[in-house]
Write a structure and sequence with these properties.
Strand order of the largest sheet: 27-28-29-32-31-30
Low-confidence stretches: 401-411, 422-438
Mean pLDDT: 86
Number of strands: 35
Oligomer: single chain
Distance between the termini: 48 Å
Largest sheet: 6 strands, antiparallel
Radius of gyration: 24 Å
InterPro entries: F-box-like_dom_sf, F-box_dom
Organism: Thelephora terrestris
Domain F-box: 1-47
Number of helices: 9
Strand content: 25-35%
Number of domains: 2
Protein name: F-box domain-containing protein
Shape: globular
Structural class: alpha+beta
Helix content: 10-25%
C-alpha cells in the first residue's frame, strides 16, 4: 500500500496548501519528515503566517513574489511589537475642523466646520496609502452635514447624511450616496451603482435640536440609526437599506435613548448596544424572528418619516441579547459606543484593487469589537470592554455551546521548539457557554471568558477609531504618555507566552512587551457592578518607551495617527502619521 509520504514533496506541498490552518499545524507535529517539509516550503510558511496573523492579501497591482510577501508579512508583525515604524509624516490640518471624522482602509476623513456654531459645512479626506504625498481632498454638498458612513474596499462608497430646511419649522435629513475616489475638488459625485443617490429620510421640528447618527455599510446593506438626545418624546429610529436600490429592508423604532451606536458583526448581523436593558443585541437579517420590540410612536407631532417603506420591509428582530453584569443601585449606562474595524465583507464581494498601499489587511472575521461606556450616578466613569468577533459569532449561531478545551491540555512547546516552528502552539480559545433561553444570555453564561474590561477614565474614549483587527491603541490624554498597543490575537499571545516562559514581560529597543494573564485586575474594586467582574480574555500589551503628547491616537490597519490639538485644546491642528507596514 502506498504511503502518503511516498508522494513527491512538490505534490504534498500542493495538497497541504488546501488544508485549513489548524490541520497544517497538526501536520507539523505528526512526523519529522512533514515538519521539515512544511518548515522549508515558502508557500506553506506563507499560509501559516498569513492565517496566524489574521491577515489577508490586499487586492493590489503589486508583483511581489511569494517569498517577498512572506518577508513583508513577518517584518510587519515584528514592527508592531518593536514600534519600528517605516515612515513618519506630519499632516497639517489646513481647515477649521468639525467633530465629524472617520478612519478606515487608509482613508482619513475630517469634517470642515463653520465659523458660525457647530455646523459641518464640508468634508476633507486624505489617502494615507500614498505615503508622504498627502493632499486634502474636499467634498462640498452646499448644505450642512450631520454624519457619514464609509465603505472603501468593497464599493468606494461614502454615505453622507445632510440637513436642509424642510416644511416651515422643520429640518430635513437626506442620505447622499457618493463615490469617494471621484468626489474631489469640492465636487461630490453620485455613486454609479446607487439607483437613488439622494434619499429623503425624515423631517423633524427645530426644537428637537441636535441629532446623533450612526451609519455603517457592509455588502449590499447600509444601517442608519437616528437618535434625538434632547427630545424624550422622540423614538430612536433604525433602518437597514439595500443601498443600491434605495429600498428599506428592515426597520425598528424604540424608546428614546435605547440605542446610540451600532456595528456589523457579519454581513447580515447587526450589533446593537442597548442602554436601557444593559445588553448587547445581535440582530440577524436571515434568521426567523426571535424577538422584535413593539414599535414606538412619537408623542405628538415631532417627526415625519420621508422614506418610502416597501411592503417587503419588516421589523428588525433580535436573535441574541447578551446581558452585561448587573450595575449597582443608582448606577446607569449613559452611553455605549461600539466599533469593529475592519467591517466584514459580503460573501460575494471582490475588494477593489489599489495601485499603492499595504500588501496585507486584517481579516474582518478575526478581529475585536470594542465597547466604550460612560456610566455613573453622581460621578461619571468611563469603562471599556473588548470581545473577539469570533466569540460573538459563536454565540449567535449556537443554541447550546460549551467550551472545548481538549486542545489546551497538550504539552506546551519549549522556547527552542517555538523558535524553530512558532505554529506548534494553540491559542487560548475563549468559547462561551450559551445554555439557556435562545434570545437571552445572562452575563455569567457568556462574558467571563470572552470579555476584557478596562478602566478608561484617563483615555479619551470620545474618539472611537482606535482599534483595527486584533489591536487597540490608547494613550493618556494631553499628557506625556507612552502609546499602548494591546493585541488580542490568541496565536501571538501563545507564541509570546512560550517565548517568555515564566516571566511576564520582555523589552525591545523601543518597547516593553507584557502579557496580561487571565483574571488580572482591570476594574476597580468599589466600582460599577454589583458583583466583582472577572476578565479572563488575555492580551499582549506593547508599551512604547518614548512618551508622546497627543489628545488621542487613532488606529487603522497599518497606521497609528497621533492627534494634535490647538492651544485651546478644542480643534485638531495636526496629525502625526506612523506607518508600520511596507507599501506595494
Amino acid at each position: 500500500m502506498t504511503n502518503l509520504l511516498d508522494c513527491p514533496p512538490e505534490l504534498l506541498v500542493h495538497i497541504f496548501a488546501y488544508l485549513p490552518f489548524t490541520s497544517l499545524r497538526v501536520l507539523l507535529v505528526t512526523s519529522r519528515t512533514l515538519n521539515d517539509l512544511i518548515s522549508s516550503s515558502v508557500l506553506l510558511q506563507y499560509l501559516l503566517h498569513l492565517q496566524s496573523s489574521a491577515h489577508s492579501l490586499y487586492p493590489s497591482t503589486s508583483t511581489c513574489s511569494l517569498a517577498e510577501q512572506l518577508k513583508v508579512l513577518t517584518d510587519c508583525e515584528k514592527r508592531w511589537q518593536d514600534w519600528e515604524y517605516t515612515t513618519y509624516n506630519r499632516l497639517e490640518v489646513q481647515h477649521r475642523p468639525s467633530g465629524i471624522y472617520d478612519l478606515t482602509s487608509g482613508i482619513f476623513i475630517l469634517g470642515e466646520g463653520s465659523t458660525l456654531g457647530r455646523l459641518t459645512i464640508g468634508l476633507r479626506w486624505v489617502d494615507l496609502r500614498l505615503g508622504k504625498d498627502l493632499v486634502w481632498n474636499a467634498i462640498d454638498l452646499q448644505t450642512p452635514i450631520v454624519d457619514l458612513g464609509v465603505n472603501v474596499l468593497e464599493w468606494d462608497l461614502i454615505a453622507v447624511v445632510s440637513m436642509r430646511l424642510g416644511n416651515p419649522g422643520f429640518c430635513q435629513l437626506d442620505l447622499n450616496l457618493l463615490q469617494l475616489s471621484t468626489s474631489k475638488d469640492s465636487v461630490p459625485t453620485h455613486h454609479p451603482k446607487a439607483k437613488k443617490p439622494l434619499i429623503p429620510i425624515i423631517q423633524y421640528p427645530f426644537e428637537d435640536g441636535h441629532c446623533s447618527i450612526a451609519a455603517e455599510i457592509v455588502g449590499p446593506y447600509l444601517a442608519l440609526l437616528i437618535v434625538f438626545p434632547g427630545n424624550r418624546d422622540s423614538p430612536d429610529r433604525l433602518w437597514v437599506f439595500e443601498w443600491q436600490s434605495g429600498n428599506v429592508k428592515f426597520e425598528r423604532s424604540s424608546r428614546w435613548m435605547t440605542y446610540n451606536s451600532l456595528a456589523f458583526l457579519d454581513e447580515e448581523t447587526l450589533i446593537l448596544p442597548n442602554l436601557r436593558d444593559h445588553a448587547i443585541e445581535l440582530c440577524s437579517f436571515t434568521t426567523n424572528t426571535a424577538w422584535a420590540p413593539a414599535a414606538v410612536s412619537p408623542s405628538g407631532d415631532n417627526g415625519v418619516v420621508m422614506l418610502e417603506i416597501t411592503p417587503y420591509c419588516v421589523p428588525l428582530s433580535t436573535t441574541r441579547s447578551l446581558k452585561l453584569p448587573p450595575t449597582r443601585e443608582g448606577m446607569s449606562i449613559l452611553r455605549m459606543a461600539c466599533r469593529g474595524e475592519p467591517n466584514p465583507f459580503a460573501a460575494n464581494s471582490i475588494p477593489r484593487p489599489v495601485e499603492v498601499g499595504p500588501l496585507f489587511r486584517p481579516d474582518p472575521e478575526s478581529s475585536i469589537v470594542i465597547f466604550n461606556l460612560l456610566v455613573g450616578s453622581v460621578q461619571h466613569r468611563s469603562i471599556s470592554f473588548v470581545v473577539n468577533r469570533e466569540s460573538l459569532l459563536h454565540l449567535l449561531k449556537s443554541d447550546d455551546v460549551e467550551g472545548n478545551n481538549s486542545e489546551l491540555e497538550e504539552d506546551e512547546p519549549t522556547a527552542a521548539e517555538l523558535e524553530r516552528n512558532p505554529f506548534l502552539t494553540s491559542p487560548d480559545y475563549t468559547v462561551a457557554d450559551n445554555r439557556g433561553p435562545p434570545s437571552y444570555v445572562p452575563w455569567s453564561k457568556w462574558g467571563t471568558r470572552t470579555v476584557r474590561w478596562f478602566m478608561t477614565d484617563d483615555i479619551p474614549t470620545r474618539w472611537i477609531t482606535t482599534s483595527c483587527g486584533y489591536r487597540w491603541a490608547t494613550i493618556a490624554e494631553d499628557l506625556p504618555s507612552p502609546i499602548y498597543i494591546r493585541d488580542f490575537n490568541p496565536w501571538r499571545i501563545k507564541q509570546v507566552k512560550a517565548k517568555l516562559g515564566g516571566t511576564e514581560s520582555y523589552e525591545t529597543e523601543r518597547t516593553v512587551v507584557t502579557i496580561a494573564r487571565p483574571g488580572s485586575p482591570t476594574l476597580e474594586e468599589e466600582s460599577i457592578f454589583v458583583d466583582p467582574v472577572s476578565s479572563d480574555l488575555e492580551y499582549l500589551e506593547v508599551k512604547t518607551k518614548k512618551a508622546y503628547r497627543y489628545s488621542s491616537v487613532f488606529m487603522d490597519e497599518n497606521w497609528i495617527l497621533g492627534i494634535v490639538l490647538d492651544s485651546q485644546g478644542q480643534n485638531m491642528k495636526a496629525v502625526d502619521i506612523y506607518s508600520l507596514s511596507t507599501v506595494s
